[in-house]
Amino acid sequence: EVQLVESGGGLVQPGRSLRLSCTASGFNFADYAMSWVRQAPEKGLEWVGFITSKAYGGTTEYAASVRGRFTLSRDDSKSIAYLQMSSLKTEDTAVYYCTRGGGIWSGYRAGYFDYWGQGTLVTVSS
Amino acid sequence: QSVLTQPPSASGTPGQRVTISCSGSSSNIGSNYIYWYQQLPGKAPKLLIYRNYQRPSGVPDRFSGSKSGTSASLAISGLRSEDEADYYCAGWDDSLSGWVFGGGTKLTVL
């Protein structure tokens, strides 16, 4: 059974940093791209970014709203995907979901988010 | 404003058929696959339809997806009370080089 468990959320002041983790199980983590999607309170879904598998270069792509502030990485030996968030803003307040898949690159347009974690809440406030 | 446009709400009575539309452009729906997600209250989203019309195992065939040009739709037949949820369409946008979501449609079963 595929499981994705996010951790690391909490209350953080504007301008500070926070790192989220996504621990995966039930599949060969190294074979898959991993993505993050967030949902502000009472709002819709917003894609944050993805990281491809090492086989496809471990390439990252980010939404314009987080580019330059957020960084995705992965540790295939531990089956963990990370979202490092810096220079946090109040508008980054959201539930952050880890998802499997979603990688898109030249010649491959078939990626999508097939499994989702339960989410972790990040609150940016002074 | 979301790149993909969905009606904010939809409703139906048990047993009815309802459709939810998703409108985009040539850079997203017009040239890439569309996906649909169901989000039950207080829960994480769940994949409902992938690659325009495919259903993951375990998703009832009451749910169906279609796409034409720059628009897509999700149909739910034999509506049930447990279908009450938020529904989101999603797709890759070539111009933005990113994933885009619709604003979501809140389905109420009357």
Q: How do you describe this structure in short?
A:
The complex is a heterodimer of chains A (126) and B (110). Chain A is an all-beta fold and 126 residues long.
What layout of secondary structure does this protein have?
The complex is a heterodimer of chains A (126) and B (110).
Chain A: E1 3-7, E2 10-12, E3 18-25, E4 34-39, E5 45-51, E6 60-62, E7 70-75, E8 80-85, E9 94-101, E10 113-116, E11 120-124
Parallel strand pairs in A: 2-11
Antiparallel strand pairs in A: 1-3, 3-8, 4-5, 4-9, 5-6, 7-8, 9-10, 9-11
Chain B: E1 9-12, E2 18-23, E3 34-39, E4 46-49, E5 63-68, E6 71-76, E7 85-93, E8 98-101, E9 105-109
Parallel strand pairs in B: 1-9
Antiparallel strand pairs in B: 2-6, 3-4, 3-7, 5-6, 7-8, 7-9
General description of the model:
The complex is a heterodimer of chains A (126) and B (110). Chain A is mainly β. Chain A contains no helices and eleven strands. In chain A, the strands form two sheets. In chain A, strands 2, 4, 5, 6, 9, 10 and 11 form a seven-stranded mixed sheet that branches. Chain A starts with a strand and ends with a strand. The relative contact order of chain A is 0.30. The mean pLDDT of chain A is 96. With 110 residues, chain B is an all-beta fold. Helix content of chain B is 0%, strand content 45%. Chain B is built from no helices and nine strands. In chain B, strands 1, 3, 4, 7, 8 and 9 form a six-stranded mixed sheet that branches. In chain B, strands 2-6-5 form a three-stranded antiparallel sheet, with no helix packed on it. The A-B interface holds A 35, 37, 44-47, 50, 61-64, 97, 102, 104, 109-119 and B 2, 32-33, 35, 37, 44-47, 50-51, 56, 88, 90, 92, 96-104.
